[in-house]
Structures are given as C-alpha cells and as structure tokens.
Fold Protein-glutamate O-methyltransferase CheR.
Amino acid sequence: MDSLEYLEKLEIELFLQGIYDWYGYDYRDYAYQSIRRRIWHRVEAEKVSSILELLDKVLHDTSCVQRLMADFSINVTEMFRDPLFFGQFREKVVPLLRTYPSIRIWHAGCSTGEEIYSMAILLKEEGLYDKTKIYATDINADVLKIAKNGYYPLDNMKKYTSNYLQAGGKDAFSAYYTATNNGVRFNPCLTKNVVFAQHNLVTDRSFNEFHVIICRNVLIYFNKTLQAKVHQLFYESLGMFGILGLGDKETIAYTNQADHYKELSGKHKLYQKVN
C-alpha cells in the first residue's frame, strides 16, 4: 500500500468512526471497497473536495447524513428473486413448518419488501400464512415505509410474474395486487401478519426465537469480522431445527457455526440448525 492509499484508508477510518461516535451508525466493519465507493460517491454528490470535508458536513448537517445512509443501504431486490430458492423452500422447508402450531420468520435486511410479499404469497398458497408471524427488519427507515405501503412499479410485474411461476406459484400472480395510476399495490392481507421494524445487524441483539431466518445478499457487504458476528446472532436467534436462508454468494461454510447446521439445499443456501 503506497502512502496515498494509506492516507485514504486512514481518512475513511476516521470518517466511519466519526459517524459511529456522533450518530451511532456503525459501518466500520462493512466491506472496505464497497463502503469506499459509496463515500466517494457522496463526496462528489455533495460537491465537497475530500472525505474529511464530507465528514465535517455530515456531522453538522442531518439532511446530509440521511443522504449518506441512503447511499450505504443496499436495496437491490425483486419479487421471488432467485426463483429456485423459493422452489426449494416450498419443497424442503414447508413440510417442516406444517408440523408447528405457529411459525415465526425473520427477514433480516428486508429492504423495500419485495421478499416479504414473496414469502407471504408462498405461505398463503401453502395454507400456512394464518399461523405465521413475519418480522421484517432493516436499518433504513425509508425503505421500511416502502415495504409497508406495498406500492411497486407496474413495469416490474412482468419480471416478477416470471419469477413467481418459476418458483412454483400456484395462482395468477395478478390476483395478489391491484393496478393503480402510479403502479400496483399488493393486497394488504399479505401484511396483516407482518411486523415492520428497524433493526441494525451490526449493533442490535436478538429479539425473539425463530423457526426461519432469511438474510439474503446482505452479508456479502460485510467484512469477515462482521459476518462472524451476524452468523452468531442468527445461530442464537434460531430455535432447534430452525432454517437459515442465505443469498447465492453466501455460505455457512468456514464459520464457527458450520458444524451446527446441515444442508437442506447447498446450491440454494438453505441450512437447518441441528445442535
């Protein structure tokens, strides 16, 4: 690492420490290159000349910190994303859930909520929704509002319908939403058993015991230290024989908890806690 790279790294560390000390937002263990790109994007957007100048603005301008938090939030999602994951969930997990008198599912890092509605539709079609409580959490309050409202662009429905059918959908996907002038609104009955709440995987602790935890394509933005912390949180939050679902580029392998799970679907990242 040359002197300029070292100086930039030091500035980024100071920046993230300042955000943590002043606002309590902890991004110190996010993947370095990802967070570096997002900081420089905000430097350019705010028309300041350096990372430390951005820090000064963030510390004195709460509207600036909100824009920064929006940059730091990863909100890439869609209905029935990676359809085969949901197909495997129907095949491998639903039979287990049928044996429970009630079901608790945690979607950690739920973003704008497309995955929540996907799960609700799946559970409704399998006759399990009425005995399920879904906890939908994210660090970003703005995306939680979008998730709770259930309004999405009409242009996305063609892609979402295709995903739904590939995931084993049993009905007409259009039966689950109503078209409006501005897009579509998903049926409010799909969120009657959903609790939307802010939760920070970096700093917050477990808040219940769950039968299923879904956290897909979130851990890839964390460094190994933070990944290990979150895996421990999930392990402690899962009941015995509970299910952990991860993203396609994530794995339980090489974690301290690896020996405590068995693969239900290694290819589609579904794991069951066994001890």
User: Anything to note?
Assistant: The two ends are 43 Å apart (CA to CA). Residues 3-23 form the longest helix (21 residues).
